[in-house]
């Protein structure tokens, strides 16, 4: 990375970090957690991008260079072959199930039955291996077959390839375009994970009335491996926030939210904040009845993407004094409006919610794929004109913050502990046992994580 590109990277990251922390910076950042517009204008189909890692990486570098004013963005897609390897039924894939130009789609159903809560709670790994995965992974429906074993082998190989692909993308953006990514790692609210992947929307709505204790206990179980997942995937330098997409709060009453959603969500997020991490949270739908809770987190630790269904001005007054917010540009304006309308909207937002910092322009948590290019350019130009706080340089990036003290996280799960395999084989270990054990434990944890996250 040249000195010029390195300086550009540091300026962008420093500006983004300062906005999240509600600290002074030179101008309003252009920091998009999700930017489907980048994929759409690339000239490639979603199928090409999701199946060819080189196209995916090059498309991102090209976008960063085309819009050098942008401070950070990401493409919210995944490498598709791992879904094919297992015949993953939770996902419909462009070019395979959908037109090549379509986004991937999530297939939400009651994959866990209403009477299976205790099975999951008492043995989550066993339940997933023996009951859940045969339902959602077509290649594992005939358990014990050679085909199912080969599918699992291929999936394990793919895990390593996914990690390498993502590292290459991040590295190319940094070294070739001086562009940081907006988030690293992921955490899902336990209630969302239970609803999305297990019970489905209809199932979880019934369960809150029919078996509320099981819902609460299942959320506590899920929290354990969500914390493990977040730690394994987060930025080790703690410079970039962990991403959370919320799904069900907009359908919950305040009482339901406070009872079922908030306790484990807050517990998980606070534990990671105490360890020095920050978050970027997409408040999907109208979070208005619940978003006062965001003020419970320490100031400047949670960047909140506000959806179109909510009022950006009310968000600013309700909790924007405590956390940075993004949003305020309606979807229909970005897609159907004129550059003049976008420009006036951004000007208004810069002069109101962004007047003293703590705001980043955005659409409904993302830049829609059908955004008119001239409207995206108008958004950028308006920020450059109306979103400047001072003429000096942006602050330098900050190093990893120290945690507030010792934070104990749950132990990463394993299926077969080292002591078990050692005893079964009668190994006396004449050499250095730790050299052997560390790798056994590492692969056990990786396998357990894969098992609990599919």
What are the defining features of this structure?
two-stranded parallel ribbon; five-stranded parallel beta sheet; 454 residues; mainly alpha; globular
Describe the 3D structure.
With 454 residues, the protein is mainly alpha-helical. The chain has 2 domains: 3-410, Alpha-Beta Barrel (TIM Barrel), CATH 3.20.20; 412-454. It is 52% helix and 6% strand. It has helices spanning 3-20, 36-40, 46-51, 53-66, 81-86, 117-122, 124-136, 146-177, 190-210, 212-233, 254-274, 312-319, 331-336, 339-351, 373-386, 418-425, 433-453, and strands spanning 31-32, 72-73, 91-92, 105-106, 242-245, 279-283, 302-306, 325-326, 359-360. Strands 5-6-7-8-9 form a 5-stranded parallel beta sheet, covered by helices on one side. Strands 1-2 form a two-stranded parallel sheet. A two-stranded antiparallel sheet has the order 3-4. Strand 7, helix 12 and strand 8 form a beta-alpha-beta unit. The chain is globular, with a radius of gyration of 23 Å. The relative contact order is 0.13.
Gist?
It comes from Neomoorella glycerini. This protein is mainly α and 454 residues long.
The CATH top-level class label of the largest domain: Alpha Beta
CATH topology category name of the largest domain: TIM Barrel
Spatial strand arrangement across the major sheet: 5-6-7-8-9
Outline the low-pLDDT stretches.
none
Query: What proportion of the residues is helical, as a percent range?
Result: 40-55%
> How many strands in all?
9
Q: Quickly count the helices.
A: 17
This entry's quaternary arrangement is single chain
Radius of gyration: 23 Å
The class by helix and strand makeup works out as mainly alpha
- What is the beta-strand fraction? 5-15%
Total separate domains: 2
Gap between N and C termini:
36 Å
Query: Biggest β-sheet: count, sense, barrel?
Result: 5 strands, parallel
Order of helices and strands: HEHHHEHEEHHHHHEHEEHEHHEHHH
Please state the overall shape, judged from the principal axes of the Cα atoms. Answer: globular
